């Protein structure tokens, strides 16, 4: 549900470990002990959009990348800044239509050309972190590989209606072996995704998703979930029916039916979701989502559609999430 129609949608880290007792004993509930710390890499080296440009994500506002909550006074000041003209009282109220903070910035190359977007989203939901961990709210970070609705068919035989659907599935053991890739601990999942954008483009590829901060001892502690289009599945000339990272235009044939254009290599999509307690509101949680999208010029012929359309889409999805959490 925290996907809210953007690239985080459909990510498939399990919200609970596959083998909880063993995971707790070995300290592998999250990636903090990993040599390849995805959250740290995304906030220092950045996410690579092109061969010569990477974009570092800002660190979460209310929790460090090591999982330590910021000081209470600092958290209150940060909340006031995020609430802005709405004011804190209105921003944190228990309402489906409570304000949502959505900020988008263009990412430009050295020539001043827009090549992507940084999207920064913050909103409040009225469930504690402990309740969220136990609810269906993290369905986007769970997966049942045998579930039929999770299956992604990458062949061009998909019906036109299927091109407008977000889809994910876990990679099979055979696919992992063929790529020579192993999962890193019990906190990581690799999954194939299909992400349609504004009915004009479909991105397909393999997402690497992780529990970066996930306490084994305190279910009320902040959590951070990260995801990134995995460069190990990049291809200069991807095949249409492969799991390689790629984008394809949604076109119309001679009778007006939707079909996919030829595949193009794609990279540069990822982000994190940080969920922290709202200062002074024990039963409410702040959800902070930060991610980047690489936008090749050919997607929308240079028109800035994502910046104009995404805030509206995000607002609708957040309100739907709040309604579901009220049920």
TrEMBL record:
Q: Which InterPro entries match?
A: EF_Hand_1_Ca_BS (IPR018247)
**Record protein name field:** Signal peptide protein
Q: What are the start and end residues of every segment in region (Disordered)?
A: 137-167
